[in-house]
Specification:
Blueprint (H helix, E strand, L loop, with lengths): L5 H12 L23 E5 L5 E5 L5 E2 L4 H13 L1 H7 L13 H5 L11 H9 L6 H16 L8 H10 L1 H12 L7 H12 L2 E2 L1 H12 L14 H14 L5 H7 L4 E3 L4 E6 L3 E6 L10 H13 L6
Antiparallel strand pairs: 1-2, 1-7, 3-4, 5-6, 6-7
Helix pairs in contact: 1-13, 2-3, 2-11, 5-8, 5-9, 6-9, 7-9, 8-9
This protein binds glutamine.
């Protein structure tokens, strides 16, 4: 049985919202620290183009790490699978998303997967364009196409706030530049990456992107193939193995949906052949995942039998 009622979702939201108090909003990007802890929104998008939603659905939030799935899709389209995986690996790390540890121990030195910060920076490096500005516009256009929303843009204040404080990400880029994974100007790549992370949308837009992935790259409204099937497959596989950072194993057991989270509290779910899910709840657990968002997904997975396993 699938959910076809806003009221049912509203009920689940009210139960999940209670868990928000147990977490904290992200502090390390100053502009994210002002988010409201108890906000929670959810949307479902079905392959027949219908959507359902509940909670604070009007609120926009930045994609943060969720953008890593979309930059990966574009880099795969731009460069092809073989080329992309010469610079980034396919294995989960078991470490926090911003860890530098395995960059040094992995030989040859390349980030272990595209869902950790180091891997995502290497992926963004591979997006094609003559200038950093052109590469960002291409990514934005691609995301507008996946959401079906021409007004999607990025939050300048949040991008600037991260750009000014991203010391650890800069360290990752310098390390990778030293080892030949990246060969562009560090500040240019940081500018592009922080803008990418600050791309904003609401939970309905996000659910629609999840639905495109769930439907193997097919647009739920027009039937048009927006992504090659293999690209959608690779993205969903990484969402299962590394999408919830170093909590991906537990999440696969408790929820069983390909999903990607971000430190803004967003989570995108892609339930194969069934629906896309967009969630935002800024209160995070210690691994950086939305605490109420995960509870909500656990409840939904049980109630609607969404686990793919
Ligand atoms: N986990 C995340 O959402 C991290 C994204 C954030 N912009 C960073 O690079 O630190």
């Amino acid at each position: 049985m699938l959910c076809r009622s806003n009221d049912e979702l509203e009920l689940l939201i009210s139960q999940a919202r209670a868990f928000a108090g147990q977490g904290e909003v992200a502090q390390y990007i100053p502009a994210l620290a002002v988010a409201h802890k108890h906000e929670l929104s959810v949307a479902l998008y079905y392959p027949d183009g219908k959507g359902f939603m509940a909670g604070d659905t009007e609120e926009n939030f930045t994609l943060q790490s969720i953008s890593k799935v979309l930059s990966l899709a574009l880099a795969l389209i731009d460069q092809g699978e073989e080329c992309v995986f010469t610079r980034v690996g396919k294995e989960p790390t078991g470490d926090p998303f911003n860890s530098i540890a395995k960059l040094e121990t992995n030989k040859p030195s390349k980030p272990l997967n595209p869902m950790i910060n180091a891997g995502a920076l290497a992926v963004t490096h591979m997006i094609k364009g003559n200038t950093a500005g052109e590469r960002f516009e291409r990514l934005l256009d691609f995301i507008r196409c996946l959401t079906g929303n021409e007004t999607i843009t990025y939050n300048k204040e949040i991008a600037k706030s991260e750009f000014e404080t991203a010391h650890l990400n800069r360290a990752l880029v310098y390390f990778m530049k030293e080892h030949g994974v990246i060969d562009e100007d560090v500040e240019e790549l940081m500018d592009l990456y922080t803008k990418q992370c600050a791309i904003e949308m609401n939970c309905i837009d996000l659910a629609r992107v999840g639905c495109v992935l769930a439907m193997d790259g097919c647009d739920p409204d027009t039937g048009k193939q927006l992504l090659p099937i293999d690209v959608a497959r690779i993205c969903k596989t990484f969402m299962v193995t590394c999408g919830m950072y170093n909590a991906s194993g537990e999440f696969a057991i408790n929820v069983g949906i390909p999903a990607k989270s971000g430190v803004s509290g967003g989570i995108m779910g892609a339930v194969p052949k069934k629906c896309g899910i967009g969630i935002c709840g800024p209160s995070l657990d210690e691994k950086g995942n939305s605490i109420a968002g995960i509870k909500l997904l656990e409840m939904m997975a049980k109630r609607y039998s969404l686990s793919m396993f």
